Amino acid sequence: MLSLSGITKRFGTLAANDAISLEVSKGEIHALLGENGAGKSTLVKILYGALAPDEGEIRWKGKSVRFANPAAARAAGIGMVFQHFSLFDALTVAENVALALPGDRKLSDIAKTLADVSKQYGLPLDPQAQIGDLSAGERQRVEIIRCLLANPELIIMDEPTSVLTPQEADALFETLRKLRAEGRSILYISHKLEEVRALCESATILRHGKVVGTCDPRETSKADLAAMMVGAGVADIRAATDDRAIGERALVVNGLSTQPASPFATALKDISFAVRHGTISAIAGIAGNGQSELFACLSGETLMQDASTILLFGQPAGTTGINERRRAGAAFVSEERLGHGAAPTLSLTDNVVLTRTAADPEMTTRGFVRRSRARSIRETICEAFDVRRGSPDPAAGSLSGGNLQKFIVGREIGRVPDLIIIDQPTWGVDAGAAQNIRQTLIDSAENGTAILVISQDLDEIFEIADEIAVLFEGRLSPFVPVKDTNREQIGLLMGGEGFEPSNTGQLNPLNTDANEPAAGGGHAASA
Amino acid sequence: MQLQLEHRVTPSFRMMLLSPLIAVGLTLATGAIIFASLGKDPLAGLYFFFFEPLTVWWSFEEVLVKMTPLALIAAGLTICFLANVWNIGAEGQFIFGAIIGAILPVLFPELQGYYVLPIMLLMGFLGGMAYGLVPALFKVRFGANEILTSLMLVYVAELFLDWLVRGPWRNPGGLNFPETRQFHEFASMPIIGDDRLNIGFLIAVAVSILLFVFLTRTFSGFGVRLSGNAPKAAKFAGFDRNKTTYFVLGLSGALAGLAGIIEVAGPIDQLRPAISPGYGFTAIIVAFLGRLNPIGTLVAAFVLSITYIGGESAQITIGVTDKITRVFQGILLFYVLACDTLIVYRLRLRRATPPAMDGSNPQEASS
Amino acid sequence: MTPEIIVAVTVTIMTAATPLLLAAIGELVVERSGVLNLGVEGMMIIGAIAGFAGALSSGSAYIGILAAMIAAMALASLFALLVLAMAANQVATGLSITLLGLGLSGLIGQAYIGQPGVQLPKLDVPGLSDLPIVGPLLLSHDILLYASFAITAGVFWFLFKTRAGLILRAVGDNHSSAHAIGYPVLLVRFLAILFGGACAGLAGAYLSLSYTLQWVEGMSAGRGWIALALVVFASWRPFRVVAGAYLFGAVLILQFHAQAAGVQIPSQFLSALPYVATILVLILISRNRKLVQMNTPACLGQPFVADK
Q1: Residue A369, Cα to own-chain centre: how many angstroms?
Q2: Cα nearest neighbour of A91 on chain C
């Protein structure tokens, strides 16, 4: 069906793809496995006509081809479902679908076909809905349907489950198996070993832009797959000891509610919780359920009406800004690294100044920045956290995702804060750096720091957290100890089961029996 | 062949220094073409326009006189543009500062003493600041785009000045000319040159240096740069976007207002319907040519000032209209912006179609 | 007021509104594609002088219109070169185009100061144009006034009823997505900028061939900037631009009539009215931040560089 041989793509001196070869046969779900930065995205962009390879050959249905652009790839029968959705927020579902189809079909006609296809594959959608109002799961359905309407013989799916609850992911797998049964091939890109083993019958594993192995994932152990994907050398995390001291409440949130700041933002509804010294509390949830809004409230980038809504180390802090909260002993790591946690075009030294000035009296004298101090802090961070850089003081934007995140986490942890609030600690970070960061968080908790992790990665949460809550449409479930719950239950909460559908902010008691139908329904993945 | 932009990993330092020079070079080349198309000898045109003003002291002094308002306004605009706040109404702030600063010598000519000029400068500064804070207020409170509001206020200020000098402020002892009384000696800028060069020039140089230090050495200056560069990161560092908007618009307005009062208390010595040959707009070009760096704008103000004097000189010597000055200024900004692209991007020529792959024949590929 | 006066006033409002409508509808398309073009004022004035000069040298106002469009599109191409091919800052580039346009028009216009212009003929419908009220209001205008409405309707049809319009809106909403599914972002924007330039040229031609009939330096007098404000006022919807342009036409005319009626207000204050009105309108419309946020093309002002 599809065969790639010797595909090479260089960006400057870096070979993002180095002589990659790969075979996908008809009616097969083929996994392209590799961690962040292994070259998966570059490869599929080449295959889909969005990038031109420097070397190598693509054979499609036995013929050598080169797609000048994505439209040519689509015309040849190759469809793609993007990881970062290529949808248009201001347009309707039907318009979004129409944009990916050849130009001779009427919009009303498309809307009708859309309804048919969505019924056929169990992907319910309203053609007239505006994309900006849809959840991440619904947007993915639009992407999939848009892809299917072109009747592709090969479908490329780039990390499709990263925005889904476990239950939604199961429903997606059903859809994919249905597609396979129709004789379509699927190139399934992922770094999640479990789902690849559950879904795919063959796999190509990439590391540092090279193919390091091919296998049948159903007959390969998870450990072997991981070893191929990551290479040797990533140690397991050392879990926190059980006999550490659990201390006072470092952060208390009482009935926090907000108005949405923009048309597509989420309002927070009556959120209450506490984080104690010496523990890691984690908030799970699908992207877009209020995580960034909650982070902004906790950091002080969004201020509260009432100071007592947020207590920091026992003191009302709801109306104090981010720098006062830093001076009180809190540290913050935002989800967005470039442009929020760090200024991409500024040097690392400047990025030290960015957050370390407020709580460090030695950083400034009468308003003038002492750059020598910023430079020495930069060196300390880079050495302690093994930040790899091309020159001593490069622009933050030139660091790889993993190294930049190590730098940012190091910058905040290096202060030895009493409370750390960290949003998506290892998103888009390679396995080695991720382990490093997680271990750092565990070690800090053992030393008495209170840690709040906001994450969409359930694996990560179950690996490091002491207790878990779920954020859904701006509401937060109660925290439960990690040993009293499981992925299934958390997954249901992430899909909205157990939350009242009304706006009262009331929350049903957590269902301990996962099979019991949840009150109110929410929008469960029904396939 | 196809021209393509490729993002540089780190901005090119060499291009940062070179790009204004390339822009000036391209402007000179284009200028030669324009002179030729006007039927003039291109080399003579360029000589009289760009170099002759520097050859004799009196015109060189005039270059320094005209560079004073440009440097002051541009230093303020630099701070604005760095913060990604687009004040294009400096011309209005210049006029309004001049009006407020002129209150003492026009309405209270009986007040005489060394205290008058400092108060006038302060009032001009504050007047320009107030006028600059208007679009800031509209932006912060109502979200109104500062580009459009600040520009509209230019027209309003021009008409207000026109009304003043034709109406209530008209010189009672004049012959019905639309102008105020001449400023008395205590209301005039002390001269430091032979003719019209006054201490305003020194003020402009000092302000530029101060702003340079502010931007590069202080935490607040860091905040200004950050809020334009990465607004969310600026908020993360504790800088309030609204306060920054007020600060940069207020400061740039104040410096434009200061330039305004220095101009009317200096070379002009009275208020007239037109007190600026577009300094507020030319200063935008100065700010960009100076690479948004207050020391750079000092140099750039010198260059742009030459185009004013050169326009006059070329009109007299080779008989081209001084309208050509504005054309050169527009072209210069155009080239500066084009060259700035080279700092962040690398220009690449590449073949439109990738080279053929081994083992594939074109017919097969197209089927 | 007699009906005749009301009709006469309405007709003058129409003539004052037409250049605003022409320029704003062009800019609306440009902004819908994600580009903020602050060069409207410059393109308009270059259109005014090119139209004036073209008409005078050929003797035909229609040749003048053509010349105005070509000149403004040439300036628009320069703008496009910088903001599209070189990904330059759109605000600064727009300003440079406006400064260049003002300078060039002054240079070219030197030779035309004081010369009589060529009047764009009225397209009278024999018999019908003499009808009372309906005649002067609807049937006795020049081609550009009719064109302003035709273009507005055409833009509406294009944006919301055609696939090309859908693509243009998509490019303005999310250029990365549009690129990812294979649309030529820069080409779409280039065409939009050319269209915006042509419209600004028409607006300029209207000023010098119909509204004023002579060349006056700086005769666009901020109309290009007002057109930019109108696009915001209209929240990027074509027919609301008509309403905005006619509202501003009325404000522009009001000052003349107030002066003629002997209102005891200094003329400068009346002349400032359109500019003050622009500020007020911007404030009023921007206060409703949700409305503006919902309607602003999401990519407005952001340069696009494909990662090839």
Answers
A1: 36
A2: C170
